[in-house]
Write a structure and sequence with these properties.
Elements lengths: L2 H4 L5 E2 L30 E5 L2 E6 L5 H10 L2 E4 L3 E6 L3 H8 L11 E8 L5 E11 L2 E6 L5 H5 L8 E3 L4 E6 L3 H8 L13 E6 L2 E6 L8 E6 L5 H12 L5 E2 L3 H10 L33 H6 L22 E3 L2 E4 L1
Parallel strand pairs: 4-14
Antiparallel strand pairs: 1-2, 2-3, 4-10, 5-8, 5-9, 6-7, 7-8, 10-13, 11-12, 12-13, 15-16
Helix pairs in contact: 2-7, 5-6
Length: 331
């Protein structure tokens, strides 16, 4: 690879569509229904599941985003991609393609899960929602899972499809205050971590989950095709004003993930097993159902190979130098 490529950062810009540029090349770059909220801030986008997710917004620095999610509340449109798994064999299929035991999940609950190749290397991870006994959504991180699903579904009575759902995160210490003010009726109760609920916001029924990877208090809302996305987004945005809500992009979570020791696809690929990246403890040793990659994992080195460090000064943002006794020892 040419050095100039490795030293460059490539982004997608939002430009006026005046008819002078062909639109067919944008078919695989899908904007979030609420991305219009980002346009006043000269956004730069990256692709995540072929969905555009804001990489940079001009009104806020990376460190300002960090402190907003630590001290107040943030609003972030994501590139997470929910895929629907439904049918009489939905649970059997999910247990086949995901490493953790899906049969333990109750309706109305979510769980962290991940998919593996046959040799035990990781494909991607995400949050799986059990919406009914025979219906799941897997809100996946960046990665090619749809074709992987199709390769393992042939003998089962299950339908795999894109339900056209988009995810936005509300995270930070004041996030629950925003939810209480945004809803038309009662606040969901009980509201445990990984719970699913339906609430009314701006007269719309909205599916929300008590999830997020900010290592802070937070929740996510799922915009379905029948929802009035603008009405929902505007109501939540208005509710957050008195709590100092700000619109953020990808950088808001990078430092928090580092501090929390949370893995992302940037830390794993097809060459790493769950044990390599500190995720081995998530596996259910007593899972009865076989899953793709299981036999390989049983033979692999199960020692965790992740290490932590204590940061005394500054924010552990991605790409910053690590110094010990004034000597730079890494990034």
């Amino acid at each position: 690879m040419h050095e100039s490529i490795s030293l460059s950062r490539f982004t997608i810009k939002a430009l006026p569509n005046d008819g002078a540029r062909p639109r067919e090349l944008s078919a695989n770059m899908k904007p979030h229904p609420l991305s219009y909220m980002e346009l006043p801030f000269d956004p730069e986008y990256s692709l995540y599941n072929s969905r555009m997710t804001p990489e940079h917004l001009s009104h806020v620095s990376d460190d300002e985003q960090y402190w907003a999610v630590r001290q107040k509340v943030i609003f972030r449109n994501t590139g997470e991609f929910p895929v629907q798994i439904a049918g009489p064999d939905a649970e059997v299929f999910a247990n086949r393609v995901f490493a953790r035991d899906v049969s333990r999940m109750k309706v109305g609950r979510c769980a962290y899960n991940f998919a593996l190749y046959h040799h035990g290397g990781m494909i991607t991870d995400g949050v799986i929602l059990r919406l009914a006994e025979e219906k799941f959504w897997m809100a996946q991180a960046d990665g090619e899972l749809m074709k992987w699903y199709m390769a393992h579904v042939a003998d089962l009575d299950v339908a795999i499809c894109d339900p056209g759902v988009w995810v936005t995160q509300i995270q930070g210490p004041r996030s629950m205050d925003v939810l209480r003010d945004a809803t038309d009726g009662d606040f969901p109760s009980p509201w445990r971590y990984f719970d699913i609920a339906e609430v009314s916001i701006a007269g719309e029924q909205v599916l929300i989950t008590r999830t997020g990877f900010s290592n802070e208090l937070g929740w996510e809302f799922y915009l379905r095709p029948g929802n009035n996305a603008e009405a929902i987004g505007e109501r939540i945005w208005e509710a957050g004003q008195k709590y100092g809500i700000i619109l953020t992009g990808v950088p808001v979570f990078r430092a928090r993930r580092i501090e929390a020791g949370l893995m992302s696809q940037a830390e794993f690929d097809e060459t790493t097993t769950p044990f390599d990246v500190g995720l081995g403890h998530f596996l259910h040793a007593d899972k009865v159902a076989d899953f793709v990659g299981r036999s390989s994992l049983e033979e692999t080195d199960k020692r965790s190979r992740t290490f932590g460090m204590r940061v005394r000064d500054g924010i552990a943002q991605l790409g910053r130098n690590i110094t010990i006794n004034s000597k730079t020892v890494g990034k």
